[in-house]
Amino acid sequence: MIKIKYIENNHSCVIEAYEEQTGWDEITLYYSEISTDFNVGSNSIEIPWHSFISNFDTLRHLTNRFSIKVDIDNDTLQLIKEAIEKKTKLNDLENLIGIDIDIIQEELDRKGMRRQLTKEQKRNVSTLTRLNSGATFSVPGAGKTTEAISFYLLKRDLTNKLLVICPKSAFPAWEEQFRECLGEKAPKIKRLIGGYQSIENLLKSKDEIYLIT
Prior knowledge:
The chain is α/β, with parallel strands linked by helices. It has 9 helices and 8 strands. β3 and β4 form a beta hairpin.
């Protein structure tokens, strides 16, 4: 039998074997190969939660192959179920609620966008509108900043603010891109610089967008 438990304080997963367990060496070997952040004990392994979830199907295959019983506490089991549900939804991305690619530009124009998106940018932004969180990994120069600004405009409301985390050398580029995309309608951008107290005071301002390293 193996026991699986989520560790909240460092967002990891501990898999522990009870006594001598057939197939344990295979499980240990597999996780050591897929994660560089891997800790192994005499009868346990600890890996980042994202590595565990991403490879849960393989663990299930190994436990079935070696007839290993699995003990999972209720909290950990709930997290696993939620992760599987999210993965299932991603596999059916086109049917998730979002803004259709054909009306992305129309919606952006209505919100003051001055830049015309490429077909690829429209596709990426449409995809992002269907997700709770996401990322774009296009090549340099593909227009990822424009995609980020477009997504922000589509999701913008009076209760939310935008925090951009980037190198300090990129601050001017972000400010310029907002001006080029929105012109006179570009919101004021505040640079969060200085120490803790300085940044805390800056965050009390009524600005809509903040830049920080």
